[in-house]
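Could you help me review a protein record that somebody else here produced? Here is the record exactly as it was handed to me:
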Amino acid sequence: MKLPGLRAPVGGYMLRRTLFCAVAAACLFAAAPVSGVLADVDAIPMPPDRAADSYAIYSALMPGAPFDSMSAGQNQRWAIADTTVNISDMNPAVPPEGQLKPPEDHPKRFHEAVRDFETRKYQRLQLTQQLNLAQPYELLNADQVAELRRAKTAVDAGSALQAKYAGYPGVTFFSQVYFNAGHTAALVYMNNWCANLCQQGQWIYLEKHGGNWVKRSGIYQTIS
């Protein structure tokens, strides 16, 4: 026979668990780039002279960690925010030289890309369907990004909302791509958000070799 006096602690535990989940979900929303929950009315079109290289870089970097190590069932489609993030949207708001150091063989290219960032760091660009990816992808507007986050984190998200975004592991945020003068080096910020605190916000430095954009290795430094 169950004792009536033991029912209250169980109810209290469930209440505490529900509150904990709600707080955890709220923290996930707060820690993510704010661009995904703000209106993107201030975004400008991609400059034509930057489009080909920018979309080639975005395509080369997708899906990125940790999405590239998830199972096929978790990774059926990719979601990308349709508006790039600027320095104000990044959390923390670290400039590229705060996370990277220039390559020793030719630092000039890196520093030129940093100067391009300084000129354009408050801009947001509107992306269009020009990525060349191995899997289906969608560009999500601000409302859709907020809806996806809710589907992945809210304890009261309905089954229909969860099913709508079930095939997406999360959402990817990119910054504008910042170039050196010759468009042979580039800096870009990338942040992958998912429901399990798997944000991987980082600056990436790339160089163009043989017509292809490749990541340079050994350029990371510890943020003090």
